[in-house]
Design goal:
By secondary structure, the chain is mainly alpha-helical. The chain is built from nine helices and four strands.
Length: 180
């Protein structure tokens, strides 16, 4: 296994290289968020009609609803990062998100590919820019994260939530479609 982190002349990792509180980590968080959104956008554009309405068993929702869910979730990333940047607790609780997700199936069963792509095109650039605006010191801020049961989380962890959200749900969608 090779180490691709920047190093000092002695071969030791450069200060902060790849660590959650480094400028490299800020760029990695923003880039992975953009890559996840791009993967979802590409999937939505290429998804066959028959697959768009397929049920994703592990999610108990259709591909259509899952794609919309991922796109709409983008706004939450920024809503969570803004108070954390000021070392304030992130409001909310896990139960609120679970309740919204349960209602979402009925609310968005008619979501179109164009709607999903429009949300991605509108929301992703601003959230990615916001992530890139974070400093290395801000990435190390720890605050209570209400949606995570109030546990203390580092801002760097929350900055990666969007990318992880795309990855997990798109993975479930692809697994379900491959099993058909």
């Amino acid at each position: 296994m090779t180490n691709d982190l920047p190093t000092t002349p002695s071969g030791a990792p450069a200060e902060g290289a790849g660590l959650p509180g480094s400028s490299q980590a800020v760029e990695e968080a923003a880039a992975s968020f953009e890559a996840g959104a791009a993967a979802l956008r590409s999937f939505v554009r290429e998804c066959a009609d028959v697959d768009w309405d397929a049920v994703v068993p592990v999610e108990k929702r259709t591909v259509r609803v899952m794609a919309y869910h991922c796109a709409r979730g983008i706004r939450l990333v920024r809503e969570w990062l803004e108070p954390m940047r000021k070392a304030l607790p992130v409001p909310g609780e896990a139960g609120e998100i679970d309740a919204y997700n349960a209602r979402e199936m009925d609310l968005h069963e008619g979501a179109t590919r164009d709607e999903v792509v429009e949300i991605l095109d509108r929301e992703v650039p601003g959230v990615a820019a916001f992530i890139r605006s974070l400093t290395a010191a801000e990435m190390r801020i720890v605050a209570p994260f209400g949606p995570g049961g109030g546990r203390e989380m580092e801002l760097s962890q929350v900055a990666r939530v969007g990318a992880r959200h795309f990855e997990v749900h798109l993975g479930h969608i692809r697994e379900a479609l491959a099993a058909r």
